[in-house]
Amino acid sequence: MSFGSAQVTGALWRDEEVLGGGTITSGTLDIKLGPESSAEVPNFVIPGLGNTGLVPNGFAQAPLLIRNNGSTPFVFRLQSTTVNGSLPFTLTASTVVSAAACPAAGAPIGATVLFNGNAAGAQVPTTPAAARPLAPGSNEVWCFRLTTSDQPPQTSTSTVTFSFRADQA
After folding, report:
1. pLDDT given for residue 98 in this prediction
2. Burial of 106 (0-12, 13-18, 19+ CB in 10 A)
């Protein structure tokens, strides 16, 4: 059995500076994960990424909508991936044009692969300097695929957690 979830952490900050005139513009940095209608939750479970009957070399695959709900552009990345449990996974993370291009069964349609490797400790992009830009009101769809090994432990359960980071561009 496998489960996938994504986590987002919010931050508020305040700063003051005395200026000799001019214009100051402020904005909000707000990354959202999941469908447009989803409520904000600290641990968003990615529907369809879990599977209760994985066979050797089996996989679970599901899309995740990443949205900029704020008023300022940001860059974002998959900061870390944690696998809890004894079932090892290979992670393939790709961008696709829509959630429909990431079917539960079969290969993603028109995908651009961002990462393919051990799920534990995965970061996408692998370096913070290559973080992906996202303009206010824009979104990007990622297709996550978790694949088991050719000899997975029997009757094992693992949970995979994805943590994202966004920084003002």
Report:
1. 96
2. exposed
